[in-house]
Design goal:
This protein is mainly α. It has one domain. It is about 85% helix and about 0% strand. It is built from 6 helices and no strands. It is globular and about 50 Å long.
Length: about 190
């Protein structure tokens, strides 16, 4: 690994250590409260869609003079779809347990696809960084995330309501351990 300046190495170590600890804590909470974690994941995605739609509208209107009418129109269409999806998801979550369960199941399928891609990327990145101490944790993270993605995509929709929280918890836990191992690789060899 290329040597980093001490301040950069300390900063990177501190950031990855904090992120790793946060991921471990979130992972453990999701494992203890899987139904709550499933609903929270869905709510966060709904809020992200709302924010993305609002930001899309604002930035498109601010840049409308510099963009063609056709591009502005399509950007506003996409932003409106984000807003509509976010509003619909929130309505589904507040419409009762059955509607919320259906929403969580649909989101679980999308998360399954994301886990497949994330697992593939983590696996490739870890294999290309075998010279870094702790690279095996990255490989483990990639493989576990790939397996979780496959598991999500092959489950029956109604089984996903609580299992989604468990799977996200496992993924967060492995990601956190991976980040903690990565932060340990930035220890300076000299005395403190």
């Amino acid at each position: 690994m290329a040597a980093h300046p001490p301040r950069l190495a300390n900063s990177l170590r501190s950031f990855t250590l904090a992120e790793g600890m946060m991921m471990v804590v979130l992972g453990m909470l999701a494992l203890v409260f899987p139904m709550v974690a499933s609903l929270w994941v869905t709510a966060v995605v709904a809020i992200a869609f709302l924010v993305g739609g609002l930001v899309g509208w604002i930035t498109t209107l601010n840049r409308a003079r510099r963009l063609s009418r056709l591009i502005s129109f399509w950007r506003l269409v996409v932003a409106t779809l984000f807003l509509a999806a976010g509003i619909w998801m929130i309505q589904q979550l507040s419409a009762g347990p059955l509607a919320a369960a259906a929403q969580v199941a649909v989101l679980a399928l999308a998360i399954g696809v994301v886990f497949l891609v994330e697992g593939g990327v983590a696996t490739v990145v870890s294999l290309t960084h075998r010279h870094v101490r702790g690279w095996g944790w990255g490989l483990s993270n990639g493989i576990v995330t790939l397996v979780l993605g496959l598991l999500i995509l092959t489950m029956k929709p109604m089984n996903l309501v609580g299992v989604l929280g468990l799977l996200v918890g496992i993924s967060f836990l492995f990601s956190g351990v991976d980040l903690l191992a990565f932060s340990a690789s930035f220890h300076e060899d000299g005395p403190d």
